[in-house]
Amino acid sequence: MIDKRAPGPAAAVADVPDGATIMIGGFGEAGSPIELIHALIDQGARDLTIISNNTGSGEVGLAALLKAERVAKVICSFPRTANSTVFPELYRRGRIRLELVPQGTLAERIRAGGAGIPAFFTPAAAGTLLAEGKESRSFDGKEYLLERWLRADYALIKGRCADTLGNVVYNKTARNFGPIMAMAAKTTIVQVASLVPPGGLDPEVVVTPGIFVDRVVEVAHPQHESELVASGATYP
Questions:
Q1: How far is CA 145 from the centre of its chain?
Q2: Is the pTM of this model over 0.90?
Q3: Contacts from 85-93 at CB under 8 Å and sequence distance 24+?
Q4: 129 falls within a domain
Q5: Confidence of residue 210 (pLDDT cuts 50, 70, 90)
């Protein structure tokens, strides 16, 4: 049996190189792996491409990674949400690039990456500015766009509990993109509130099997993005 425990967030992200493509889980606050993101800031990797649902809030977590100007490009669905001020300012100054993707298309591109499907057709964004430069075809009289898969070097995701073999369960909506990101990345790193020994999880409730997970790190008392933003916290 392979023990996939990392001694802490810093060790878990220590080998992330400059220029890496990283998927980061989270649906707003739900499922955001703040401790792993902060460890990545401390680690110093630069020129990153981030694939995520949004661009973070306040000046903590993902927004703090952007503020540190470690990210060259973001691929996301919601570049601006409540309390997201860092990304808009960087974008206006030409300090970061954006690939805007409809949320359903984003999820399917990630899922396709994990399933080994290089491209698929979708009606989302057909006939809009997002269709510029993309191949389109008509099926049954309706226009569809060709979208490419998304894959990453690393995925940073947050679970509720895992065993030492990397089998993961999530906390309700905090699951979000976690399972498909785990499948689409070469190296998947999961932070969880608790770790249990093999056999400590009911196999019927495991969502992400350990085969898709490379490292798990226990963060017993994870921080909550909304509480940090409300208190005016910044990182580092």
A1: 24
A2: yes
A3: 85/58, 86/55, 86/56, 86/59, 87/55, 87/56, 87/63, 90/66
A4: no
A5: very high
